[in-house]
Amino acid sequence: MTESKIGIIVQARMGSTRLPGKIFKKIGNKSLLEHIFYRLKFLKHSVLNVIATSDLHGDDRVQEFCKKNNIECFRGSESNVLERYYLCAKKYGFKNIIRLTGDNPFVDIEELDNLIDLHIKTNSDYSNSFENLPVGIGAEIFTLESLEKSYYEGKDPHHLEHVNEYMLENPQIFKSTILIPPQEKNRHDIRLTIDNEEDHKKACFIVDNSENEYINTKELVQLVIQYEKYI
Fold this sequence. Notes:
- The structure is a single chain.
- This protein is of the alpha/beta class.
- The chain has a single domain (6-230), classed as Spore Coat Polysaccharide Biosynthesis Protein SpsA, Chain A.
- It has helices at 32-40, 60-69, 81-92, 109-121, 144-153, 157-161, 165-169, 197-208, 217-230, and strands at residues 6-11, 26-27, 30-31, 48-54, 72-76, 96-101, 126-128, 140-143, 176-178.
- The strands form two sheets. The chain has a seven-stranded mixed beta sheet, sandwiched between helices. The protein has a two-stranded antiparallel ribbon with strand order 2-3.
- The radius of gyration is 17 Å and the shape is globular.
- The model has no long low-confidence stretch (mean pLDDT 95).
């Protein structure tokens, strides 16, 4: 396996039950989406970034964001996210696909680089860094073949809604690898995803109380602890 044709597909849409329009909510001087793509600039591996959004009229704003920021945009089914990913990956000819979501503004780029290295070195079908890192800063990467198999064989409703479910449910089919991060990042009890207004307040506190534009995981953890004492 080579690292050619690696794509990062960020699933993002305006619709959100608990926090509508959260992908454009400001966290400091950047929107949530802007934070994601700012951090991706520090990735060492060569990748193509794509936002995969829905074909609903409400997500026209996502497409406008892509045009303004020179980011590829793919539009597909709102409910069948698995199909959206598969068709997007096929369109761009990706051999390995990194899945990120519009919920997570603080992706650990250093560990994302390590995850890509591990995935390629082990010739895995599916690899992730979720297990030990704080919730919301990990990532996953899978081959096009694995995504294609999931697309054609994963027919249950939860398979269509969650891209990785079929792979996770069938470890006998897919060779999976888990990235083990350094001990100091082993804080799965820390939550850094944005799902509701309280999560957004926490993210704003983090950005407002850091002097660094790129906030590393160690500082993120410290600021979450500080925030929880503050509230």
